[in-house]
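Hi everyone,

Forwarding the result from last night's run.
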Amino acid sequence: MVQGRVQGRVLGAEELAQLRALIAAHPQASRRQLSAQLCQAWDWTNDAGQFKDMAARSLMLKLHQRGLITLPQRRQRPTTHRRGQAAPWELPLEFASAPPLCTELNSVQPLNLHCLGPQHPDQRLFTALITRHHYLGLRTTVGENLKYLVRANDGRPLACLLFGAAAWKVAARDAWIGWSAAQRARRLQWITNNTRFLILPGVQIPHLASHVLGLVARRIARDWQAKYGHPVVALETFVQRDRFAGTCYRAANWVHLGATTGRTRQDRDHQLQRPRKDVYLLPLRPDWRAHLHANL
């Protein structure tokens, strides 16, 4: 195998041999068990010392799909929730049929911004709200991510936000940051992507969206550090320009960097296949660029 990078790791013939030997040594193991074994064998952890099980599982699946290793048959079908399917948890009536809320921002303040850990009681509510009401729905979250639920001062849910892995390559972003491909590979985890932002239907509060973005920006770095053991120094997002104007991001001081091409990685004929999206980025600290350029 020609040496290459898969799931953030450089792999060559030696690593492939180790993987094949690990699979052969555990013939009864499931894919989940094999990924756990791989994390232990390679001491593959994040900065908080947690095994990167999902990254290991994704790496093994990619190699399996390329015919470089052979994984055991799946023992359980993965569960994904597509747009238009029923939510995995029915919304309580009070949320499913809540009356419209048309008011001023100060009447719902102070807002309560909840960062949802795995055992947080609002996890299922968050999933149901995004699945039911966001036009992209909700896919299974893989890798590092944070979820936020915003409630009014009376407890009513107002908004949901999901942050996950930054896009691997974005021409407008990478040109503006000015980093090399090697720097990007080492420091990409220091950027997180706002992949979902939902103001709930019926909530009509001027300036709410930009205010919520500001609240999140002031705390997400320490939330990320607490969960994953490393900081994030900038936020990015992609706004589908035929649906949204990006007004709330501009109002919250995100920088408009340009637009995506609309092409997918499989677009070898250079024909637009997906809607173009505006690219926005928000630095979280004055020295953010120096951190993204660091070679260590």
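DSSP finds ten helices and eleven strands in the chain.

Cheers,
N.
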